[in-house]
Design a protein that fits this description.
Helices cover 51% and strands 0% of the residues. The chain is an all-alpha fold.
């Protein structure tokens, strides 16, 4: 009896993985043959319709140049969709979670909650002599 949600290998996953491995190995071998063998040898074997050899180098270079651009544009896009700092929605919205003041065991991790902006300001902008032992948790 096998568990369908298990991340372990099943017969179907093993077959799909093997087929993907074999097809990617075949594609790599085909690419290397096309890239390194002279055109006359390919014509002699009967393989006459191939893209220009320019693309054997251009496609990997284009793909490797696209990676830094993707990082840059992903970061830039995140900056464009981020709300401005003076927006009230950066403080609190309908999805905010208030901190529960239920007693927790001493070594436990506290539940996830939003810290009110007044508490953040109190801890960040008070003078050091004003911070008391009860303020730091």
């Amino acid at each position: 009896m096998s568990n369908k949600n298990s991340p372990g290998p099943s017969h179907e996953r093993a077959i799909y993985g093997f087929v993907m491995y074999m097809s990617s190995t075949f594609a790599l071998c085909l690419y290397l043959i096309w890239a390194y063998l002279p055109k006359s040898w390919l014509h002699y074997v009967g393989l006459t319709y191939w893209p220009q050899k320019y693309w054997a180098l251009a496609v990997p270079v284009y793909c490797s140049v696209c990676i830094p651009f993707l990082y840059f544009f992903y970061t830039a896009y995140n900056f464009t969709i981020t709300l401005p700092l003076d927006s009230i929605n950066t403080m609190q919205d309908i999805h905010s979670r208030a901190a529960s003041h239920v007693a927790e065991p001493s070594l436990s991790i506290p539940q996830i909650s939003d810290i009110p902006i007044s508490e953040v300001n109190k801890l960040l902008y008070r003078r050091p002599k004003q911070i008391t032992e009860g303020d730091v948790k």
